[in-house]
Predict the 3D structure of the following.
Amino acid sequence: MNRTISLPDQDTSRFHGMNILSVKQFSRQDLSMIFDVARNIRTMVEREGSLDVLKGKLLANLFYEPSTRTSSSFAAAIQRLGGNVIQINNVTFSSVSKGEELRDTIRTMGSYADAIVLRHPEEGSADIAAAVSEKPIINAGDGIGEHPTQALLDIFTIVEELDTIDGLTVTMLGDLKYGRTVHSLAKLLALYDVKLYFVAPDLLRAPPALVDELIANGMSPCKHVDLDSIMSETDVLYVTRVQRERFVDQSIYEKVKRSYVLNVDTMDSAKDRMVVMHPLPRVDEISREVDYDPRAAYFRQMEYGMYVRMALLALVLGKV
Amino acid sequence: MNRTISLPDQDTSRFHGMNILSVKQFSRQDLSMIFDVARNIRTMVEREGSLDVLKGKLLANLFYEPSTRTSSSFAAAIQRLGGNVIQINNVTFSSVSKGEELRDTIRTMGSYADAIVLRHPEEGSADIAAAVSEKPIINAGDGIGEHPTQALLDIFTIVEELDTIDGLTVTMLGDLKYGRTVHSLAKLLALYDVKLYFVAPDLLRAPPALVDELIANGMSPCKHVDLDSIMSETDVLYVTRVQRERFVDQSIYEKVKRSYVLNVDTMDSAKDRMVVMHPLPRVDEISREVDYDPRAAYFRQMEYGMYVRMALLALVLGKV
Amino acid sequence: MNRTISLPDQDTSRFHGMNILSVKQFSRQDLSMIFDVARNIRTMVEREGSLDVLKGKLLANLFYEPSTRTSSSFAAAIQRLGGNVIQINNVTFSSVSKGEELRDTIRTMGSYADAIVLRHPEEGSADIAAAVSEKPIINAGDGIGEHPTQALLDIFTIVEELDTIDGLTVTMLGDLKYGRTVHSLAKLLALYDVKLYFVAPDLLRAPPALVDELIANGMSPCKHVDLDSIMSETDVLYVTRVQRERFVDQSIYEKVKRSYVLNVDTMDSAKDRMVVMHPLPRVDEISREVDYDPRAAYFRQMEYGMYVRMALLALVLGKV
């Protein structure tokens, strides 16, 4: 089997040893390179199942809060590259210690492993970890902060499904106020020429600060609209969960919930070539019958996620 | 190392990609083939420790309820075949969602792994999983439903220990009402020419429906008897746990418990060549002193279990 | 890659299949051999990342109580040697069963794995396990009992950092009454020519039985002293945590705590060539600023621990 992934005429050395902390650290050229690697890896995995590129490499999968999906995705990624994983779940920690214990744990794990994936409920923990770590840190979600690999896989899904990003109309639906995923994705989309629509209940509209930042980054202003009015021009419908806990008045929640459920009727007015995405887990916001629609890309999105994470691991560990 | 297991003159292709959901899906010929593979694997493992047959293959070990024994057995099986495992324990799930969340999790895991072992507290979950999964599902216990690999390993243990199944007298002891294990085993035994005895407290007798099904499948009628009266003709004594919770009146439990404890005195009246089996964990129903009796097969049973699971994985993943 | 580690002119066969239960089982010559292997492995890991020495070997990492650090260290050790791990966390067990369930679990795991690492809250469990196990048991801490691999890695750290042990002055600081770590280390140090000082609050002084045992083993009498008075002659300062729970009167705890915090001022009076060690996790007993002092060896200690555990696994599984 192959021991490296080759990417002719590209210099990937800047990724070697890099921390993956925030979507802000990536240029459009970086994304393009990561996706080239992910695409190569996908081809090789489809042909051979697994590779030997990271044979002998050890990844610490350090999860301070449960996330079956993300944790499994990284565990699959390192193992399909021939490496191994140390899985650490539900680490008990005292929030009183305010990051002190995290620093020691990171330094300990860094003496065992070649890279560390960190999921932690407190915003900024990934930065704290990176500041003391001798090994690369990959942020797999730090509270209301960042979850950069999710945003990267979202973009990769769009490129793979629709062949391009420039010129697309992306509609984000659901909880745009608290949804970490849509914030990170919107910021990455600002690197491209994209028309962005927001569809959210009044209580859950995108924060003005985010809208301002997007405009400052050259995006055309993003307006809050009704789904019906833009469904037919949407290329990417990005659906997120509306959480019951956000509503004091449960009757408002019930009303809102119904108006944000995607079903086959809603899909009728959509383009033939478009995709529906969702970071999962979902509750009711996409009806099960939509799963059989070829435009439903949310399960393929999971698989693209594994390839993107494989690409990042291979790049960071210097095997591209 | 070998990259496939060869089984000359047998067509194993029907196992490729197969879900393992229920004992009902196996013919006597199927069992014979699975056991041939398990026997080959056992020889190879005893010689080499581990094989390379499933190198690059990834198994998701998805446990919605804890089962150290079964989970470890599958983790050992895939790794001794050269593959890797994604271990997912104690998945939190809302029973309100009635399988919806399970469907999404299965599809997610199927985008990472090559096969999925599922343990779930609700009967029928393995069927739900198989209906949506693009990868083979192996049922590792779904509530009061099935636990087919346990029944397969029980049969394999009998064959390996006593060289045959036809003509044997099998006595099942303990909780025959709620014990999933004995139900599945009895159904598989109906494929062979076996005399079956039941020994159980009145409260925990085998369900009439099970007895009827066994008779309909050609078994000679199975009678409830005293252990003393048939111990001397028993070839396989299959012991299960009597759970305290089943008894409203604890004084009855205490009395029953004492009469269903296997000890060296009971073993005195048994044949020289017979086996005592138990699915484990046990509480008090087999006294520790019996462990040193060569007829005590319950620890060897665990090891046979690993070989049977290795055989199933190799067959399902097309490497035989 | 190499399939064995060679140690010319030394007979390592006595380690093959050995249980690692207590520091008492090791002679000075044993330690020397283990450290030679650990040193070889370290060199190979620094060159190649991982080895193939234990390819095909399976380790059961059986943790009845959480210990992220120790568990991860063993998981890293077996995987960097090319083997695989079955990780079993938070096994539920009934203390009523008094070891019965442990015996069955050990025999089950022994039918899947080639060696078993055991962490259990009850003193003596490792001995119970070893008595029934057909596979080697490595004690990773049994309550207030032993934690031999911790003591081995402590000694290895000293040798690697200071090139020798004979002639050194070792000062142990903190909870010397309940600290399992310092008891085991002190016993191992008795194999060498070492001057030992104890610094502890009155409530947490080393048990007289330990002091008597050390003297009986030929150590010069160990006196309880103030840190200030011996800091300048200390070669190894071994710091442990003072637990709040040990104090009925919290005002005494607060006072004691302050007098046992190591900071840069304390370090000013220390030798240029000495080391500060700590078994981790720490709370406040070493101030963060000391981390940047090259004499702070507690994170390197973690890495030495991985090499020592690799050496033990390779020796016990007969690959040296």
